[in-house]
Amino acid sequence: MFLVEEYIKSLAIQFEKHSHRDIGIGQTAYMKNRFAFWGIKAPQRRVIQRPFLRKEKLPPKEYLEEIVNVLWTYPQREFQYFGMELVHKYQDQFNQKDIHLLNFMITHKSWWDTVDYIAAHLIGRYCISFPENGMTFIQQCMDSGNLWLRRTSILFQLHYKDRTMPHLLEETITHSLGTGEFFIDKAIGWALRQYARTHPKWVLDFVERQELTPLSRREALKHFPR
User: Which of 14, 15, 149, 211 gives 144 a disulfide partner, CB atoms 3.0 to 4.6 angstroms apart?
Assistant: First the structure.
């Protein structure tokens, strides 16, 4: 029988064992004191996590939501990072109902460091697997008053390349123009900059047609010749 608490407790023991107080203080300050940290840098954290993410050691999928819910109760941010990467291991097993879990992850303990990963890697994959449900969710994100859901709607196609739906990219961006939100304006520029790697002409045309903030415009055109 799989025991959720034992699985997470084993991980917590390893995190605490490799914690660095001074690094953690710096990480907390960098995140505007929103989250505590064990003080484990990403490369080391991934080494620590590796045994817990091996295919043969993964928990049964039916425990995934419970595991994530528990991980999101921990104050140290490393637990949420682990949770995102754990969910990524199940992307080939996503079902339609998993959108509720992904929504929870976006809207709880929200900040750019988790939301961007969830949007680009998890929501992006979900929308490919379940396009009808995915587009319904993206529309809900666009219409929501939640900053992080709106950022998700802009960034979920970030790694789509040729699969990018430019009409939808345009719709998600124009829907959020004029918010005055730094994280929205930054996301707009980032999404455009990324799509410019695949379709630079479309991005140039879009930037010329739209009244973007200086931040969005600067980010969108970052890799174009001046």
Answer: 149
Structure tokens given for 150: 């709106």
Give the number of other CB atoms < 10 A from CB of residue 70.
Answer: 16
Tell me the pTM. 0.95
DSSP state of 198: T
Tell me, what amino acid is at 48?
I
182 contacts 215 by C-beta, under 8 angstroms = yes
Cβ atoms < 10 Å from Cβ of 224: 12
Distance CA 134, CA 118 (A): 14
Cα separation of 69 and 112, whole Å? Answer: 19
pLDDT tens track for 3-41 = 999 999 999 999 999 999 999 999 999 999 999 999 999
The closest alpha carbon to 184, from 218, 216, 156, belongs to 216
- The CA-atom distances, in angstroms, between 117 and each of 23, 41, 177 are 22, 17, 22
